[in-house]
Design a protein that fits this description.
Elements lengths: L13 H4 L2 H4 L3 H4 L5 H6 L17 H4 L6 E5 L2 H12 L7 H9 L8 H14 L4 E5 H6 L1 H11 L6 H5 L2 H9 L1 H6 L7 E3 L4 E3 L18 H15 L8
Parallel strand pairs: 1-2
Antiparallel strand pairs: 3-4
Helix pairs in contact: 10-12
Length: 239
């Protein structure tokens, strides 16, 4: 989105100096009372992130004719493990507590399957507006997915960009290991209003299938069965 103003190979790139949440603000906060000035100050086109369910997105977003949404879908078991490691720093609960709550549809952001199927169905209805990406596939082919993302947002790479290695430069800049190793992401915190999260807490492993280190085979089977049942008929699977 900003590679014209901030070339990815620039030693002073914002992502090298600031936590990603400072570069891409949390939409849920920007749409609260008193934050209108911050929202209006964002350069156009505005770039924001959210964990909000598709059905709860503000009409000012979904009614805007040129809006684009990129939804990152992670394998549900890995997502649950990642969520636990992230939240346990500010809440006192076990993984079993979170696991049982998720199985009953009481995860912190509501039923996991509703969140997934909401964006999945919307991406099928409006593929020009909503891009549904799978985290595991992005890990396998990050450069290919950067190209797909660039096309989707209307910023495709030119032949000159490709010759200059811009897609690979973006992947290198945004790689998990690169961001995790930066001093700015090892110190400081993000004010989540209810809780403060250390910048370091946003970077743990960033790998696929880490759930095997946290779930028993019985737990995994139970969760897979629930997810499969809830998503049946949608076309979205994790097999």
């Amino acid at each position: 989105m900003a590679r014209g103003a901030y070339p990815p190979a620039d030693a002073q790139h914002p992502l090298l100096r600031m936590n990603p949440h400072e570069c891409v603000p949390f939409m849920d906060e920007l749409f609260t009372t008193g934050q209108e000035a911050r929202l209006e100050a964002l350069p156009s086109p505005r770039l924001m992130n959210t964990h909000m369910h598709h059905s709860l997105l503000p009409a000012s977003v979904t009614d805007y004719p040129d809006y684009k949404i990129v939804f990152i879908c992670r394998e549900p078991k890995d997502m649950l493990v990642s969520l636990w490691h992230f939240l346990k720093g500010v809440r006192s609960f076990t993984f079993v507590d979170l696991f049982d709550a998720a199985c009953e549809g009481r995860a912190p952001n509501g039923p996991i399957w509703d969140h997934l199927i909401g964006y999945w169905n919307a991406s099928k209805t409006s593929p020009d507006k909503i891009l549904f990406l799978r985290y595991e596939e992005m890990l396998i082919d990050p450069v290919g997915h950067v190209r797909k993302l660039a096309r989707f947002i209307g910023q495709p790479f030119s032949q000159a960009d490709e010759a200059a290695g811009i897609p690979a430069d973006i992947v290198k800049l945004c790689s998990f290991d690169k961001l995790k190793g930066l001093g700015v992401n090892k110190a400081g915190s993000f004010d989540g209003k209810v809780f403060n999260f250390s910048h370091e807490s946003f970077f743990r492993k960033g790998v696929a299938e880490d759930w095997v280190n946290n779930m028993t085979s019985e737990m995994a089977q139970r969760f897979d069965t629930i997810i499969e049942d809830k998503l049946r008929g949608s076309g979205l699977t994790f097999k």
